[in-house]
Task: inverse folding
């Protein structure tokens, strides 16, 4: 080789420069060199390296040892080459990935899944044995298992390829080489049997099978059914069945005899560790559950280290990653405990005897794929060993009567609407994790004011799942934070840069969820896929209606419960409406949605989702203006994301009429009105649906949607001229003889004229609407009450106070009668406006209080701020200018933060009184109290406004 530096770590430690040996004299320096070159390109903090290599030394001593080891290593490398292989500063040390070197382990890791037999032979020839024989550092044992699993995986692939190519002599050579390395590889024995059979030597087939039996007996196991079947078929003269391929599954087995030492720092989780310790103190069997990547294993490792002094006879780690045969679980436990098997005695009995009087904590990691056997063995050991405690990790619980389960939560996240400083963001463990891992991945990365918002977005969109955040942080080598955030819609392609030392299923986000998905039954997979059409959560009723195609509705609850048990669905109890809701983490939802699309039934399930939420919208309409309105608004509020998803699907799938029916349901006028910051979004959705060919027909649904645009013109005073839409709605209503659409279109045309100052025209249109609504009977009372209030607004603008009062009072009476708290809040506030103009402050304050109470109950932020503006208006009229300035400043600040505007009459009155305030208040005093108001949170503003009432 022409490389300046040639390094072999497999089977021996051999370092050469230009072909000449380089001697690294001390064992710690050798370990440090191997660790750095195996993770070339990664910067490691000095304190981490010192603690890893000298764990039993004082911190200062460990750091001093690190400096000496680094100096010694540098000297040896400089003698061999002028190339600078190491980068070190005061904080970190790394091996330069770009330097001129060759490493046998790196060649092994780079092997492609598509490599040919000859390419495999070329690289596998460099494997001379296990990594760094004679080294027993914790990190070496972990990396050794990892590289060994890669070697075995590619050896199995090589056997398969050579067999397919009928290269029998090569099989004889390479299978024996594999066996000679001290492994007990069944694929090698199977390949040897096939090769001998192909050469017609059946005696060697039988001898090879006997060698296999004898070899495996040393592990207390028998050959697999696959090996037995192959032998029987060859012995009978049959061809090797195609259904029995040589295994090529890649596994990575964790260390079982010692507690693993992770290569990265442990971040956050102080509360979680305390809770686990508390539960473990009162439980003999505690299972940590949660979805893949949430950090169950990491918490278990930390708990193990924290618990060493609490258990007289020790804490032992049993890692089941890569174990596929449940009968080998006792062997894994025995290996961890360093317990020898006794002849003619089942190993589980030996373990029970050994542990009978021992004060031990046994940690069994990754139980989910062997869940039933883990439960059986745990129960037997606990029954026989009164002092034994078991901490298990699994996607689902073991299901034992004595078991205590605890769901591992995701890392804490900043709320979407929170505006936090950089220092406040850094206190969240999810942000801290991204910051540190990104800093390790790319020297010089700094979390600052410019990128903090994008980092917070990344952590939120990845649900605070530690593995997903770490994979995202690893991408900082090639993408900016903003680019990572922008690409999260395709997160499964983006998050594929996992640690080389991680188990295979933790090296990509997709592999992590694949693991959980593959453990499900087919019916569980069907339901999980179908649940992906829900956005923002769902109820059992919705799941039964949308997802039960081809299965009984009564089965959904049971299947849903199983998905909850397996940490794929989250339960969210809702005390407000006595209703349980469920949701999928967004990452799991995206994965399941991809799977749903692959099945070809996505359109059918989306149609059923649309039907359910269209039905909910139309069912809600008669309730929203009655006594039960608050319950229904709360329910609809929780379904906002599903409503959006249903509208989007209907608009884009040739079913735009359904979208018109949803937005046209009168409930949504008010529902979206109470979410004023979403009005522009709804306007866009309506116009998109109206433009679709299938929605062009002059139907009542089209008229209602057009009227919705008129409503929004009033609710948010859009500059767009809505006359054409409202005229069309009016003509459709008249053409189809529909009084509701006719009266509604006239009302909004009247409102439009009123906002433009055309009060005579406005009064005429509103009176026509009033005349029609009085003929509609009980169902017309909502239309009637609204029209009366708007006529009151016109009279108020024309300074006809008595007439305005008459209209408002009739409207309020009807609204109280039918129990419509929604519009009652607005009409009551109008009566309050009349009262403060007439200086009846007691009455004005009482009416404002009532309106505020109703709006707070309804969760209408615009209404709340309008009431606060009302209290400011009262203060101006009373001459309490400092008080008014404070409240007005707070109102303007909150409106801007929420992206809302006051309704037209509220806005006109507010601006009239603001002008009075500025005319009557000293400029400096105004600035002083205005500044105070701007800093007040909403709850403080409300308390301040009410304190004098």
Result:
């Amino acid at each position: 080789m022409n490389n300046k530096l040639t390094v072999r770590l497999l089977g021996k430690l051999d370092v050469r420069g230009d072909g000449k040996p380089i001697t690294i004299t001390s064992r710690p320096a050798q370990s440090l060199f191997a660790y750095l070159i195996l993770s070339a390109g990664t910067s490691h903090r000095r304190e981490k390296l010192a603690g890893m290599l000298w764990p039993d030394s004082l911190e200062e001593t460990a750091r001093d040892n690190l400096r000496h080891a680094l100096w010694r290593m540098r000297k040896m490398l400089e003698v061999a080459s002028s190339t600078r292989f190491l980068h070190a500063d005061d904080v970190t040390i790394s091996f330069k990935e770009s330097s001129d070197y060759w490493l046998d382990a790196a060649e092994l890791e780079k092997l492609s899944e598509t490599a040919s037999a000859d390419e495999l032979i070329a690289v596998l020839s460099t494997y001379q044995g296990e990594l760094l024989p004679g080294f027993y550092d914790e990190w070496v044992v972990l990396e050794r298992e990892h590289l060994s699993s890669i070697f075995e995986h590619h050896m199995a692939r090589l056997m398969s390829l050579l067999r397919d190519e009928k290269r029998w002599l090569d099989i004889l050579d390479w299978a024996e080489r594999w066996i000679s390395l001290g492994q007990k590889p069944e694929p090698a024995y199977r390949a040897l049997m096939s090769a001998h059979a192909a050469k017609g030597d059946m005696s060697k087939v039988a001898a090879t099978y006997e060698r296999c039996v004898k070899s495996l007996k040393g592990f207390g196991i028998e050959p697999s059914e696959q090996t037995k079947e192959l032998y029987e078929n060859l012995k009978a003269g049959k061809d090797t069945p195609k259904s029995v391929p040589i295994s090529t599954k890649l596994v990575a087995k964790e260390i079982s005899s010692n507690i693993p030492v992770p290569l990265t720092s442990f971040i956050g989780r102080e509360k979680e560790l305390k809770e686990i310790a508390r539960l473990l103190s009162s439980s003999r069997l505690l299972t940590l559950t949660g979805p893949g990547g949430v950090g169950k294993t990491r918490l278990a490792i930390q708990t193990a280290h924290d618990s060493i002094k609490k258990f007289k006879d020790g804490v032992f780690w049993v890692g089941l990653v890569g174990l596929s045969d449940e009968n080998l679980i006792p062997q894994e436990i025995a290996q961890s405990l360093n317990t020898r098997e006794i002849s003619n005695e089942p190993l589980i009995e030996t373990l029970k005897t050994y542990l009978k009087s021992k004060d031990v904590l046994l940690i069994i990691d990754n139980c989910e794929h062997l869940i039933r056997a883990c439960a059986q063995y745990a129960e037997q050991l606990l029954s026989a060993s009164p002092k034994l405690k078991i901490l298990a990790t699994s996607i689902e619980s073991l299901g034992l009567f004595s078991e205590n389960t605890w769901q591992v939560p995701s890392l804490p996240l900043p709320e979407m609407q929170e505006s936090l400083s950089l220092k406040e963001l850094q206190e969240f463990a999810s942000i801290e994790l991204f910051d540190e891992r990104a800093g390790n991945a790319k020297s010089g990365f700094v979390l600052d004011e410019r990128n903090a918002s994008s980092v917070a977005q990344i952590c939120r969109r990845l649900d605070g799942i530690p593995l997903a955040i770490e994979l995202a942080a690893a991408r900082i080598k090639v993408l900016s934070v903003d680019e990572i955030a922008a690409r999260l819609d395709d997160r499964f392609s983006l998050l594929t840069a996992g640690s080389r030392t991680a188990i295979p299923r933790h090296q990509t986000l997709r592999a992590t969820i694949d693991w959980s998905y593959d453990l499900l039954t087919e019916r569980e997979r069907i339901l999980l896929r179908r649940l992906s059409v829900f956005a923002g959560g769902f109820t059992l009723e919705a799941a039964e209606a949308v997802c039960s195609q081809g299965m009984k509705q009564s089965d959904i609850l049971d299947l849903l419960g199983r998905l909850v048990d397996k940490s794929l669905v989250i339960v969210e109890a809702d005390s407000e409406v006595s209703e349980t809701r469920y949701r999928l983490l967004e990452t799991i939802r995206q994965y399941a949605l991809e799977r749903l699309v692959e099945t070809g039934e996505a359109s059918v399930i989306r149609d059923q989702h649309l039907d359910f939420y269209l039905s909910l919208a139309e069912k809600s309409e008669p309730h929203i203006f009655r006594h039960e309105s608050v319950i229904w608004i709360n329910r609809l509020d929780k379904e906002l994301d599903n409503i959006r998803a249903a509208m989007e699907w209907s608009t884009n799938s040739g079913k735009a009429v359904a979208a018109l029916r949803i937005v046209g349901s009168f409930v949504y006028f008010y529902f979206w009105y109470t979410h004023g910051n979403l009005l522009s979004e709804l306007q866009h959705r309506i116009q998109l649906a109206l433009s679709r060919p299938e929605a062009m027909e002059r139907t009542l649904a089209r008229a209602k949607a057009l009227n919705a645009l008129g409503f929004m013109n009033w609710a948010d005073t859009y500059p767009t001229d809505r006359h054409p839409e409202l005229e069309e709605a009016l003509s459709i209503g008249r053409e189809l003889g529909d009084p509701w659409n006719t009266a509604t279109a006239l009302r909004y045309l009247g409102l439009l004229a009123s906002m433009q100052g055309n009060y005579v025209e406005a009064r005429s249109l509103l009176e026509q609407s009033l005349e029609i609504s009085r003929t509609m009977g009980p169902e017309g009372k909502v239309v009637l009450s609204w029209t009366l209030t708007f006529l009151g607004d016109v009279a108020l603008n024309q300074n006809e106070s008595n007439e305005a009062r008459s209209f408002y009072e009739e409207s309020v009476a009807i609204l109280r009668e039918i129990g419509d708290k929604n519009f009652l809040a607005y009409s009551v506030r109008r009566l309050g406006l009349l009262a403060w103009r007439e200086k009846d402050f007691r009455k004005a304050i009482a009416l404002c209080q009532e309106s505020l109470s109703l709006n707070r109950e309804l969760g209408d932020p615009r209404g709340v701020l309008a009431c606060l503006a009302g209290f400011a208006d009262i203060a101006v009229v009373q001459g309490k200018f400092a008080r008014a300035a404070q409240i007005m400043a707070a109102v303007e600040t909150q409106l801007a933060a929420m992206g809302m505007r006051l309704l037209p009459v509220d806005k006109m009155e507010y601006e009239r009184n603001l002008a009075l305030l500025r005319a009557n208040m000293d400029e400096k005093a105004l600035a002083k109290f205005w500044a105070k108001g701007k800093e007040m949170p909403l709850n403080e503003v409300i308390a301040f406004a009410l304190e004098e009432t």
